[in-house]
User: Fold this.
Amino acid sequence: MPAAARRATVQSAPTSLPYELTSCPAIFAADSEIMSVISLNLTQSSLIAMCGRFTLTTPPQALEEIFAISCTANLAPRYNIAPTQPASVIGQSHAGQRELRAFHWGLVPAWSKDLRQASGMINARAETLAQKPAFREAFVRRRCLIPTDGFYEWGARPGGGKQPYLLAPQDATCFAFAGLWEGWRNPAGEIHRSFTIITTVATAALADLHARMPVILPPAAYDSWLDPALPPGRAQAMLTSYEEQPIERRAVGDAINNVRLDDPSCQEPPNTPRIGSLFDQRQLLAV
Assistant:
């Protein structure tokens, strides 16, 4: 299908679409219900969960070209996307158009009693998607792309502790994880939409960081992955370790460990002095 025929807008979503989503401002604001219910207690042990943080700093105009969408929202760059936060997701409408929307990271199955499971379902193992009750229906009907330009992993430091790294394919300015999305309706009838990132066995080059890695889909696979008519067996065969390009790693500082930080300091080299905001400096001068 030509790219122009797949273009869609993020500003409106008729109720006939599978998303039934609201307008694009949801991209910028977290759902107050889930943020109050789920604690982002990202301790040192949770930092090694795969995949636990990622980025999307690519400008909207570039996203339009890469993913054949019409992105009219002024998306803010994200340097530290963390579990339960809203993030951009690309799916396919009934008309076969690609749609960009904001879902919360951490899949909540439709049959869940509440949102508390979200923080435990940020990843889904490729090998068991067809068997796990939380994922098997979404695997057949609700596949999606998660656009990104990098993800973080933590490796052991010689003197102890964890060293964070920013990883990305060598020549990719922006790429996509394979994902699944789901809708959960609360007692008031409001729909909370969420997603999970699919993982597979890590390549030999990344095995020292983690035994698993997110599934990175090549651009030629985007249409097939989003097509709900694709048989599950063929979709399963797409969930392999990424070998098309080397994945580069770059050491970054510990700022990434703070879930409240989402600015360029998250990607600065280790031991880079952090300059506080003007407000912070005024506080120091007042002491």
